[in-house]
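Annotated sample (chain length 262).
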Amino acid sequence: MPFVAIAYLIFLAAPILLLFVGSFGEVWSGTLLPSGFTWRWYQEVAGDPSFRRAFTTSLKIVATTCLLNILIGLPLAYAIHAGARGGVRLAARIVTLMPIAVPELVLAFGFILVFSSDALPWLGSFWLLAAGHLVLTLPYTVTALVADMDQLGLAEYEHAAATLGASFPARIWDVTLPQLHTSLLSCMLTVAALSIGEFQLSNLVSGFLSRTYPVVLLQAFYGATGFACAATVVLLGLAMIASLTSGLTARVTGRRKVGAGA
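Output written by the structure step:
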């Protein structure tokens, strides 16, 4: 069994390692490994106007998606935690998780059908793309926040604040948000990691001026291999940074839960 696990990990890591090696190779054609060493591919990626514009668009989409997740996901999670009980709570959770169960291509074709009409001619716009990313990432935010609210015993803290005369806005500002700030940070980092690498919906919904980095990255594989590898490594680096930071934040949140439970 250990041999199978090691072989599986090597199988998963090998393509990523080859991409990293290929991004520094001068020539890579018909061989297992590239020949030569160069920084030229990263310089070309940094100097390419389409990649710079797509990189900026991706960062804007990520920031907008995170902000919308906070503005919509936090109140929705709080409503499910505080108000929903029994079957209503279960139904709300199922509806929230539906975007994960539905394939992204189905969601994308639905966006195309609805938002390419004369009444709603928004296909290809920045805000429609951000809305698509919101639909895909909101379930992760709501699910994580509801679980954290339950684990932290948020209702007990708010009840104690209410008995001391705190109003609802005061309880939200002084009790709820301070308890959830680490959970929110972890959720936003997860959302950023998902949004920065999202391709299927973005490829079908984005317009020419709103193409994200993964969409433009597809075109790189029709050119030089080293250029495509370097462009892919940049995307992998961003996603890994967000994922690792999210994991570290989740560990801190887990320790807080254990402390709260004790």
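Annotation: The first helix runs from residue 2 to 22.
Annotation: The chain has a mean pLDDT of 84.
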